[in-house]
């Protein structure tokens, strides 16, 4: 029996029962037996399988809505559960297969179900899951050694957390403590997480549920040129205009003794916004005049995701005082952290702990993932495949009124969709393209203040064949909405 036939023969399980869930898993073992893209998949093979378990998602959605917060956004008119994955491919609970070009929000960095990473997790889980940082943890120490030596920050130390939000919080706490100031600068259109402090430096109304913040925050211009008053300036002039604005904000709005500025080298949630090279370096010169520190939020841009560099900050001719990371390091495990010079990190004069931060399971898995990505040249692959995808998308959409801009770096590729006037955000159209790409067998993301930016960010192991297929589906969807 072929894999497709065995899928069709599978009984539709009861989604409510434990047995039903187990049965659903077995169904997807069959899905995994399909040949991989690397093994010469033909275009007809990548057309999503027909549904084998209709109704599973609808039942889950009802249960989700009953017990989970209304503000916990779900993608798609008919939300889906992803239950199995292999490389860049995933299967949903109703038996459809997709190319995953959003990787759990840029988190599945090496791809789904990478044997080296899975084995490391299995091995650690079979010995001890958790001990806490009250005891020595070898994988944590080894991971910290790897990260500090690659961070570019001199005399660096790492504090591990369980998420990017906590990494933001820790970095802000370290910087404000070191500088004895709660005055922080952040960029407009930024996203740094969901705690009070992280939300307080998030310059995007869609993600700022509360204005209560422990910090005094001022927002300066960042790299979002498409909607900037400095839009028409050349790179160098654009940067100069933003630096002048930074000087003005410091002079007019702050008490001068700033703690730090926090910035994403490429804004992720903001719609993959790339500032001119050297932008953060130019801003940092002004910060230095005031003794303020620079925090580079590398939660999305770290580990080679921008292709040309291991850290996003490297495009800017500056070494930050602190950097934060999370997402891709664990390939799905909950891990984050902050790197800082020892004098900043060690300046705390109280105990500080994260119970799960540096956990043996997360650090053993992250270590295996980091090694995998280094040994398999994923940064180089990202640079090569990413630049080709960006170029092809630019060429293919150059005549399309609905695409205001194609931008990005490496495998952070953004398309800003606009109304026929070429400027108003086309949010509904972006939602429609999300639906069309999903039904075509491709998962991508959305971002920007207005939700009108498409975000394409496959695992860094994506192959040329997979990239081509993904682009084909995106272009089919864009042609459908552009024709009207
Ligand atoms: C740049 C950036 N910083 C911080 C965060 C917060 O990370 P987490 O969701 O793991 O708390 C995110 C999440 O999307 C992010 O994109």
Task: Tell me the layout of helices and strands.
Elements: H1 3-9, H2 18-32, H3 56-67, E1 82-86, E2 89-92, E3 97-100, H4 103-106, H5 115-125, H6 138-151, E4 156-161, H7 164-179, E5 183-187, H8 196-200, E6 216-220, H9 235-253, E7 260-263, H10 279-289, E8 293-297, E9 322-325, E10 336-341, H11 342-345, H12 360-375, H13 378-397, E11 403-409, E12 412-417, H14 427-440, E13 442-443, E14 445-447, E15 453-456, H15 464-482
Parallel strand pairs: 3-13, 5-6, 5-7, 7-8, 8-9
Antiparallel strand pairs: 1-2, 2-3, 4-10, 9-10, 11-12, 12-15, 14-15
Helix pairs in contact: 1-2, 5-12, 6-12, 9-10, 13-15, 14-15
Pyridoxal-5'-phosphate binds at residues 105, 163-165, 168, 191-193, 264, 268-269, 297, 299-300, 326, 336.
Features:
alpha/beta, four-stranded mixed sheet, binds pyridoxal-5'-phosphate, seven-stranded mixed sheet, disordered N terminus, Aspartate Aminotransferase, domain 2, 484 residues, 2 domains, 15 helices, globular, Aspartate Aminotransferase, domain 1
Report what the structure shows:
With 484 residues, this protein is of the alpha/beta class. The model is unreliable at 1-49 (pLDDT under 50). The longest helix has 20 residues, at 378-397. It starts with a helix and ends with a helix. The chain has two domains: 3-106 and 378-482, Alpha-Beta Complex (Aspartate Aminotransferase, domain 1); 119-375, Aspartate Aminotransferase, domain 2, CATH 3.40.640. It has helices at residues 3-9, 18-32, 56-67, 103-106, 115-125, 138-151, 164-179, 196-200, 235-253, 279-289, 342-345, 360-375, 378-397, 427-440, 464-482, and strands at 82-86, 89-92, 97-100, 156-161, 183-187, 216-220, 260-263, 293-297, 322-325, 336-341, 403-409, 412-417, 442-443, 445-447, 453-456. The chain is built from 15 helices and 15 strands. The strands form three sheets. It has a seven-stranded mixed beta sheet, sandwiched between helices. Strands 1-2-3-13 form a four-stranded mixed beta sheet. Strands 11-12-15-14 form a four-stranded antiparallel beta sheet, covered by helices on one side. 39% of the residues lie in helices and 14% in strands. Pyridoxal-5'-phosphate is lined by residues 105, 163-165, 168, 191-193, 264, 268-269, 297, 299-300, 326, 336.
């Amino acid at each position: 029996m072929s894999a497709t036939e065995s899928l069709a023969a599978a009984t539709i399980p009861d989604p409510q029962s434990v047995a039903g869930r187990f049965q659903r898993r077995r169904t997807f073992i069959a899905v995994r037996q399909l040949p991989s893209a690397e093994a010469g998949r033909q275009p007809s093979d990548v057309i999503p399988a027909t549904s084998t378990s209709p109704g599973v998602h609808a039942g889950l959605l009802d249960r989700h809505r009953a017990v989970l917060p209304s503000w916990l956004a779900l993608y798609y008119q008919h939300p889906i559960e992803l239950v199995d994955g292999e490389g860049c491919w995933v299967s949903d609970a109703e038996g459809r297969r997709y190319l995953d070009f959003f990787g759990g929000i840029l988190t599945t960095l090496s791809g789904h179900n990478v044997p080296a990473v899975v084995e490391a997790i299995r091995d650690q889980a079979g010995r001890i899951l958790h001990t806490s940082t009250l005891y020595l943890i070898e994988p944590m120490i080894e991971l910290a050694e790897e990260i500090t030596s690659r961070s570019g920050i001199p005399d660096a130390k790492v504090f591990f957390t369980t998420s990017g939000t906590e990494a933001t919080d820790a970095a802000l706490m370290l910087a404000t403590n070191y500088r004895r100031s709660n005055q922080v600068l952040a960029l407009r259109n930024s996203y740094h997480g969901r705690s009070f402090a992280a939300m307080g430096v998030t310059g995007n109304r869609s993600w700022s549920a509360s204005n209560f913040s422990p910090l005094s925050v001022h927002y300066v211009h960042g790299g979002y040129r498409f909607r900037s008053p400095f839009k028409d300036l050349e790179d160098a002039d654009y940067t100069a205009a933003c630096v002048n604005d930074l000087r003005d904000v410091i002079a007019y709005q702050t008490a001068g003794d700033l703690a730090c500025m926090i910035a994403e080298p490429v804004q992720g949630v903001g719609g993959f916004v790339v500032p001119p090279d050297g932008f953060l370096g130019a801003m940092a010169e002004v910060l230095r005049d005031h003794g303020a520190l620079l925090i580079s939020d590398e939660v999305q841009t770290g580990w080679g995701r921008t292709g040309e560099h291991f850290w996003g900050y490297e495009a800017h001719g500056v070494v930050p005082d602190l950097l934060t990371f999370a997402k891709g390091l664990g390939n799905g495990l909950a891990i984050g952290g902050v790197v800082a010079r020892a004098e900043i990190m060690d300046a705390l004069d109280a105990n500080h702990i994260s119970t799960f931060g540096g956990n043996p399971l997360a650090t053993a898995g992250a270590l295996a993932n980091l090694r995998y990505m280094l040994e398999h040249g994923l940064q180089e692959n990202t640079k090569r495949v990413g630049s080709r995808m960006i170029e092809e998308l630019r060429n293919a959409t150059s005549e399309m009124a609905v695409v205001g801009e194609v931008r990005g770096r490496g495998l952070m590729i953004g398309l800003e969709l606009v109304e026929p006037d070429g400027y108003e955000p086309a949010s509904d159209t972006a939602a429609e393209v999300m639906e069309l790409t999903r039904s075509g067998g491709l998962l991508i993301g959305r971002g920007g203040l207005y939700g009108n930016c498409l975000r394409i960010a496959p695992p860094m192991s994506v192959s040329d064949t997979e990239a081509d297929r993904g682009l084909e589906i995106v272009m089919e969807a864009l042609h459908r909405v552009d024709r009207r």
